[in-house]
From TrEMBL:
UniProt organism field: Sphingomonas aerophila
Superkingdom field: Bacteria
One GO MF term: nucleotide binding
Assigned keywords, A-Z: Oxidoreductase
Occurrences of domain Gfo/Idh/MocA-like oxidoreductase N-terminal (ranges): 44-168
Protein name: Putative dehydrogenase
Domain GFO/IDH/MocA-like oxidoreductase positions: 178-301
Gene3D superfamilies: Dihydrodipicolinate Reductase, domain 2 (3.30.360.10), NAD(P)-binding Rossmann-like Domain (3.40.50.720)
Length: 396
């Protein structure tokens, strides 16, 4: 291969191909290739549970772009909305379920995967019910509101011998994957410091925020909703697990939004390699989802680093200085196709329930430290991810 890096930049291929050319990828096992478009009859049917913002604006549109899975059923408490969405997506009337008759899905051969897109406090109930119907489960993040619920969900999946995948879309997002692969290659030296800021404003009058501002229903306000991207991000960028956590909180309890949930939370993780992660999250300061990784010889910046679209990866290092250009993909479509291939046994499960549980435990440790005035909490559950996304998932 004789293309220079400048050629690649001009071709818009600087990210992936440059990594391949400089033998970054050759140090890794071959990545799995996702399925080519399958014939209609072979695509696995997905039942989307909950027709709120994420389902209507991202997931259902993405299911029109998937190649190995397809929308097969809707589960909703609003029959009119469900009929409208079914009509828009050419679904028959008998593919609509209510929450009450959801369990009937067991007898629906059109559905192979149940995708739980409900408020966090309902994830456990619907995951366990879905496993009882014999279906596989894709569940939104955070996987639950408590560590105990997350453990119960994993146990239910094992008992049913079905797959449980947590919808960590950044594990399937090209810029994040490219950053992981570059960091793993060692070309920038050791990663030493990760900084993540995941912040946005919130509105108690928006029903989609109202449950997020309720501790019981969300499991942690901004921390559970936005901060989790930084917690998970620090772990996948560094490919290691923290051993110490300390955190601080500032919440204006006179603000009606923050009667039960914390607002601004900042934390530090110490990793066995000596790397440190600084994270912050808030529901009153908006709005960004960004990360930085400072390595011995370079800084990698994802800003934005975890948006649905328009993520931006920049490298501050000679000779790699500049923006890494990789074509956008629909992260949700990729993630759902990945789940389809997991069910087919073609690719590894890179974001299993255990990955979601690790974040649940870390959020609990962060909240514990905030309650204890920033005391260091020792955390080591001996968790090691089974599959590094940087190795298992192609960049694009
Ligand atoms: P939302 O409030 O817009 O939608 C939730 C849906 O659940 C609504 O249709 C609501 O009617 C329904 N519902 C059923 N029972 C309910 C009850 N008892 N109380 C409240 N609502 C009830 O929320 P959303 O933004 O679509 O988020 C859904 C899930 O997706 C959450 O777990 C959230 O963390 C996750 N999420 C993930 C991403 C991502 O990028 N992966 C982005 C947004 C949301």
């Amino acid at each position: 291969m004789s293309l220079s890096r400048r050629d690649l930049i001009e071709l818009g291929l600087a990210g992936t191909s440059a990594a391949l050319i400089t033998n970054v990828a050759s140090a890794q096992p071959a990545v799995q290739q996702p399925a080519a478009k399958l014939p209609e009859g072979e695509r696995i049917g997905v039942a989307v549970v909950g027709l709120g913002k994420l389902s209507l604006e991202q997931i259902i549109p993405a299911l029109r772009k998937t190649t190995g899975v397809k929308l097969a059923a809707l589960v909703s408490g609003h029959p009119d909305k469900a009929r409208r969405v079914a009509a828009e997506n050419n679904l028959p009337a008998d593919a609509i379920y209510s929450y009450e008759d959801f369990d009937r899905i067991a007898r629906d051969p059109r559905v192979g995967i149940v995708y739980i897109v409900l408020p966090n406090f309902l994830h456990k109930e619907y995951t366990i019910r879905a496993f009882k119907t014999g279906k596989h489960v894709l569940c939104e993040k955070p996987m639950a509101t408590t560590v105990a619920d997350a453990e119960a969900m994993i146990a239910a999946g094992k008992a049913a011998n079905r797959q449980l995948m947590i919808a960590y879309r950044c594990h399937y997002e090209p810029k994040n994957l490219e950053a992981m692969r570059r960091i793993r290659s060692g070309r920038y030296g050791k990663p030493r410091l990760v900084v993540t800021d995941m912040l946005r404003g919130s509105d108690l009058n928006d029903p989609s925020d109202a449950w997020r501002l309720d501790m019981v229903k969300s499991g942690g306000g901004a921390l559970a909703d936005m901060g989790i991207y930084g917690i998970n991000g620090a772990r996948y960028l560094l490919n290691e697990e923290p051993v110490e956590v300390r955190a601080w909180e500032h919440t204006d309890r006179s603000d009606p939004r923050f009667k039960t949930v914390p607002d601004l939370v900042a934390w530090q993780f110490r990793f066995p390699s000596g790397a440190i992660a600084n994270g912050s999250t808030s529901f009153s300061v908006g709005g960004t989802m960004r990360w930085d990784v400072f390595c011995d010889k370079a800084r990698l910046r994802g800003d934005p680093g975890a948006y649905y679209n328009g993520n931006h990866l920049e490298i501050f290092s000679s000779p790699d200085e500049g923006e890494v250009k990789i074509a956008e993909v629909d992260q949700f479509a990729r993630e759902m196709d990945w789940m389809g291939d997991v069910v087919r046994g073609r690719v590894p499960l890179v974001s299993p329930g255990e990955e979601g549980l690790q974040d649940m435990r870390l959020m609990a440790a962060i909240l514990q430290s905030t309650r204890e005035g920033g005391r260091t909490v020792t955390v080591d559950w001996q968790y090691k991810r089974a599959h590094d996304p940087a190795v298992a998932v192609p960049v694009a």
